[in-house]
Amino acid sequence: MAPQRRTPPPEAPRRGGSSTAGRPAPAAGPRTPGLVAVLGAFLVTLVAAAADSYIGIGLGTITLAALTVSSGFAALVVRRRDLVTVLVSPPLVFIGVALLNIVLAPSATFTLPTLATLLVRGFPAMAIATGAAVAVSLFRLVTRR
């Protein structure tokens, strides 16, 4: 008699390990962690603030544009679960940049009135950047991207 070939039985999916059988494929999309996105927005805004301080006095239009664009971009590339981190970051990023601007500017002294003036003048920048991040986040949530 000739030996018969036997096909091995199909393997059942394992529980644990590195097998991805039975699991849905990970969603394709942004994978940037929230902290990295906020740090990127901070660095872009800091460079713009340096340019703004070099050209004029204080934080102005260049800082506003950089904070708005970087916050919107951060909301676009961040992981979905880190969207809230990016939404609350524009005011914090602006405050950090303003503090560094006061400390590094040779003509400014670090006093409470100086900080208050920068924050009051920077409120529109913080509000516009937060609005841009909210708009991009809503777009992502609506389109499931």
UniProtKB/TrEMBL annotation:
Residue ranges crossing the lipid bilayer per the database entry: 33-51, 57-76, 83-103, 123-142
Chain ranges of the DUF6542 domain: 31-145
Name of a matching Pfam family: DUF6542
Keywords noted in UniProt: Membrane, Transmembrane, Transmembrane helix
Lineage top rank: taxon: Bacteria
Segments of skewed composition (Low complexity): 16-29
Alphabetical list of InterPro entries matching this protein: DUF6542
Segments of this protein annotated with the region Disordered: 1-29
Bias (Pro residues) ranges: 1-11
Name this polypeptide is given: DUF6542 domain-containing protein
